[in-house]
């Protein structure tokens, strides 16, 4: 595990975008795993800026998003379909058929999960997966207690997670109770993982990830078992953490 420490959210975002762009330049057919939430928004802005300035092309890149709420129309402003279009896809030259997000409106959601997993496999897996960190340690929507062996599946969202995401919705009542998420095993099969962590509200979770035991009650801890993880963290998220010497700087 490698840790890149940066001053603040802006620097975290620039650093993450630089790493992603470097991967695309080396490998134009990159299979890129994408995340939503507040954390990667500025990274997407930096990627859009780079696309404008340096013409980095997404023509041959394929993307797979981590998750989507069940029951939200893709045009609903809180769906991750809408988020990805309005924060990223609308501003780069990626062909729509190369972007993949679970269909939260599928009639047969179990089949949708199987198909999603199969599509990732058909692309020979994810080359670089971008991840955020839930304050309860969730990755994607894999909540505490999820088996490390899970493939893409349907989850019941915990109240903690619904509350954490309620800020995007008009009221708590309309925050979906279920979602489709890549499983922990799906994420762990990615060849490389880039975890972004910013802000004091993530500092406890980050400390537990860096120091804690590998334990399904804290899903992100599984990342300690992956050989190609880079964490980019700002000072606020690292406060009160003495970085263990086992973490490569
Ligand atoms: N499903 C998403 C995750 O993919 C995201 O990484 C995490 C952190 O969100 P944020 O970046 O807004 O703190 O929680 C959300 O619930």
UniProtKB/TrEMBL annotation:
GO biological process: one example: glucosamine catabolic process
Enzyme Commission identifier(s): 3.5.99.6
Pfam families hit by this protein: Glucosamine_iso
UniProt cross-references to InterPro entries, sorted A to Z: Glc/Gal-6P_isomerase, Glucosamine6P_isomerase, NagB/RpiA_transferase-like
Domain Glucosamine/galactosamine-6-phosphate isomerase residue range list: 12-229
Annotated Gene Ontology cellular component terms: cytoplasm
Signal peptide from the UniProt entry: none
Catalysis: reaction(s): alpha-D-glucosamine 6-phosphate + H2O = beta-D-fructose 6-phosphate + NH4(+)
UniProt GO MF annotations: glucosamine-6-phosphate deaminase activity; identical protein binding
Pathway it works in: Amino-sugar metabolism; N-acetylneuraminate degradation; D-fructose 6-phosphate from N-acetylneuraminate: step 5/5
Annotated keywords: Carbohydrate metabolism, Hydrolase
Family under the similarity heading: Belongs to the glucosamine/galactosamine-6-phosphate isomerase family. NagB subfamily.
Function: Catalyzes the reversible isomerization-deamination of glucosamine 6-phosphate (GlcN6P) to form fructose 6-phosphate (Fru6P) and ammonium ion.
Protein name as annotated: Glucosamine-6-phosphate deaminase
Organism classification: Bacteria, Bacillati, Bacillota, Bacilli, Bacillales
Gene behind the chain: nagB
């Amino acid at each position: 595990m490698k840790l890149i420490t940066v001053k603040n959210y802006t620097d975290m975002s620039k650093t993450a975008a630089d790493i992603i762009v470097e991967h695309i330049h080396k490998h134009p057919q990159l299979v890129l795993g994408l995340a939503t939430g507040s954390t990667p928004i500025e990274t997407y802005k930096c990627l859009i800026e780079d696309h404008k300035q340096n013409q980095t092309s997404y023509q041959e890149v394929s993307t797979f998003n981590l998750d989507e709420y069940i029951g939200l129309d893709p045009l609903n402003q809180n769906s991750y379909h809408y988020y990805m279009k309005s924060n990223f896809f609308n501003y780069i030259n990626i062909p729509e058929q190369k972007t993949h997000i679970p269909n939260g409106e599928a009639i047969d959601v179990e089949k949708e999960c199987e198909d999603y997993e199969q599509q990732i496999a058909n692309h020979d897996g994810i080359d670089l997966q971008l991840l955020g960190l839930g304050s309860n340690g969730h990755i994607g929507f894999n909540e505490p207690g999820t088996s490390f062996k899970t493939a893409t599946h349907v989850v019941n969202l915990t109240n903690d997670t619904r509350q954490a995401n309620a800020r995007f919705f008009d009221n708590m009542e309309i925050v979906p109770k279920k979602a489709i998420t890549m499983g922990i095993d799906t994420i762990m099969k990615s060849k490389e993982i880039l975890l972004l962590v910013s802000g004091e509200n993530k500092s406890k979770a980050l400390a537990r990830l860096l120091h804690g035991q590998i334990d399904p009650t804290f899903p992100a801890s599984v990342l300690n078992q992956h050989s190609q993880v880079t964490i980019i963290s700002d000072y606020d998220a690292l406060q009160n953490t003495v970085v263990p010497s086992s973490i490569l700087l």
